Amino acid sequence: KGRGKGVVVVVLMFALALQYSTQPLAMKYCGGNKATKSSVIMSSEVLKILISVVALVVTGQWRTATFSFKDFLLSAGVPSIIYTAQNFLILTGTRYLDGLMLNLINQTKTVFSAVFVFLLLGRKQSRLQMVALVMMLLASVLLTYGGAKGVKSSAKEGADVEVPLHDWLLYGIAPIVAASVLSGLAGAYTQKTLQGDRPRNSYVFSIELAVVSVLVIVVSLTSDTADSLVMKEHGFFAGWSTWTALPVLMSAMGGLVVGLIVKFAGVVEKGFAVLLGLMLTGVFDVVVEGHSLSITKLIALPVVMGSLYLHSSNPYKEAVAEKDKKEK
């Protein structure tokens, strides 16, 4: 049974990596970038709700799935508030940091996830798993290094200027570090929600998160945003083509797969799946877009595979022993 579950997790991780790496291409070649962002996200969230409902009915899980407004607020409301604060901090920090520094700090979120998983669920990492997390951080930096754009301008408008050290630390470094900490906290909280003493059904959880997302978008469209103005003039599906439904479906399925990975494995494993997706993005960039493969991505390839192997094959032994005792 445990081996079968492991196979399912591996399949889900590769599915997420594939979705993560092909989503930008689908958006580009299927007209997703021409549609309004609000319409694409809202359609994806609504589709996620519909697919989750179908999955609950087909698998028979609807018989045991429970719902209450209190559980809804705790399971979906708390992470939504955390992610909102995280996005605000990221917007603040990006005005003071260059692309490389931003990516470097942002990749620490999986490390913070591991810390909060230990604090909230008591799940420890073995020494080799800790080494794998460091390798993951290194691989993430290598894979995103090519996308760094150099020094950004400060909060002041105009050409790039030298930012005072105090401002760089307080308004640049500190917010991005805080955002990574919050990302780790939200991920661990989600894992506790799905795996804790009263485990939440992953499909119900996905529905709850999608409902919150739809409500936020509806509220945002009541003001005169760029998307709302376009929709008022050209309709909800402005800029859509027949093929735009493909990236919308892919995004919805990706969200559901994330919930299943966190449910059956954990938020750290989700981080490794995203890392594998980053590597595949580089591969597709060469194969589909015809770009050259940089030396940093070549170096990152064995680091990614090594970190995945180390983390998956070296679980914390005491935790495994305790699990075996419970099963007996």
Question: Which characteristics define this entry?
Answer:
13 helices, mainly alpha, globular, 328 residues, single chain
Q: What would you note in describing this structure?
A:
The chain has 328 residues and is an all-alpha fold. Helices cover 75% and strands 0% of the residues. The radius of gyration is 21 Å and the shape is globular.
What is the averaged pLDDT score? Answer: 84
Total count of strands: 0
How many helices in DSSP terms?
Answer: 13
Shape: globular
Strand-and-helix sequence, N→C? Answer: HHHHHHHHHHHHH
* Unreliable stretches covering 5 or more consecutive residues: 147-159
Radius of gyration: 21 Å
- Helical percent range? over 70%
Structural class call reads: mainly alpha
DSSP strand content? under 5%
Distance between the termini: 14 Å
**Biggest sheet character:** none
What would a concise description of this structure say?
The chain has 13 helices and no strands. It has 328 residues and is an all-alpha fold. Helix 1 (2-29) packs across helix 11 and helix 5 (109-121) packs antiparallel against helix 11 (267-287).
How is the topology of this model organized?
Layout: H1 2-29, H2 37-59, H3 69-93, H4 99-106, H5 109-121, H6 127-145, H7 165-195, H8 202-220, H9 226-234, H10 245-264, H11 267-287, H12 295-313, H13 317-327
Helix pairs in contact: 1-10, 1-11, 2-8, 2-10, 3-7, 3-8, 4-6, 5-7, 5-11, 6-11, 6-12, 7-10, 8-10, 11-12
